[in-house]
From TrEMBL:
Keywords: Pyridoxal phosphate
Family listed: Belongs to the pyridoxal phosphate-binding protein YggS/PROSC family.
Task of the protein: Pyridoxal 5'-phosphate (PLP)-binding protein, which is involved in PLP homeostasis.
GO molecular function: pyridoxal phosphate binding
A Pfam family the protein falls into: Ala_racemase_N
Modified residues (N6-(pyridoxal phosphate)lysine): K31
Annotated Alanine racemase N-terminal domain residues: 3-214
Organism: Roseobacter insulae
Family annotation (PANTHER family): PROLINE SYNTHETASE CO-TRANSCRIBED BACTERIAL HOMOLOG PROTEIN, PYRIDOXAL PHOSPHATE HOMEOSTASIS PROTEIN
Keyword Acyltransferase: no
Protein name: Pyridoxal phosphate homeostasis protein
């Protein structure tokens, strides 16, 4: 596939769901991709990208920002507290806020710097022990805790278990967001972004369908 093809499929899924054109943000997940592939997508005019590691993003995005205006970079992987300051400098959005300690650090950095990336709380909808995220049963309490720290929460994010029907997880995430008055839903990847759009995704995170298979060194 390609950027154009994925964009077309995103718009088609929006029409099928009776949703407005352009109402979902396509995050091109560029982790581990060679720079030539990323640059090719930038040259096609795309500006919204996702990375899952702070270190990797720090190694490539400052140079791309010098070359291209309007880059909108999303951290979609876990964030260690000691890298939060760097993440504030590198990213427009953070999708994996998942614990009180990190929320407190973000609140402190937001006060200190006067700005804050858009924040999504990651929910472990499948309650998988190896996966990050707040359990569904703890979601409302954590949203309120973040709000109590004066953090503005944009929405929720999930990564469904690999072997389960993703739609069930997308629907659960949408339900938790709705009852907490949150508009953002970061859900859907290469294999299931159309299902996610049908269930209300505002941000889809698509890697291999745009760039081709990841080349692992
Ligand atoms: C890698 C990654 C993606 C993209 O996965 P693809 O299957 O290549 O589209 C999306 N979300 C997260 C959190 C990821 O780590």
């Amino acid at each position: 596939m390609s950027l154009q093809e994925v964009s077309d499929r995103v718009e088609k899924a929006l029409r099928a769901a009776d949703r407005p054109e352009g109402s979902v943000k396509l995050i091109a997940v560029s982790k581990v991709q060679p720079n030539e592939r990323v640059e090719a997508v930038l040259n096609q005019g795309h500006r919204c990208f996702g990375e899952n590691r702070v270190q990797e993003a720090a190694g490539k995005w400052p140079a791309f920002r010098d070359m291209f205006d309007g880059i909108d970079l999303h951290l979609i992987g876990p964030l260690q507290t000691n890298k939060a300051r760097q993440a504030f400098e590198l990213f427009e959005s953070i999708h994996a806020l998942d614990r009180p300690k990190l929320a407190k650090t973000c609140a402190r950095l937001a006060q200190e710097t006067g700005t804050c990336p858009e924040l999504f709380i990651q929910i472990n909808t499948g309650e998988e022990p190896q996966k990050a995220g707040v359990l569904p049963s703890g979601a409302d309490v954590f949203v309120n805790e973040c709000r109590g720290l004066d953090l503005t929460i944009k929405g929720l994010m999930c990564i469904p278990p690999a072997d389960e029907e993703p739609s069930l997880h997308f629907a659960l995430l949408a339900k938790i967001a709705e009852r907490n008055g949150l508009e953002g839903l970061s859900m859907g990847m290469s294999g299931d972004f159309e299902k996610a759009i049908k269930l209300g995704a505002t941000h889809v995170r698509v890697g291999s369908a745009i760039f081709g298979e990841r080349v692992v060194a």
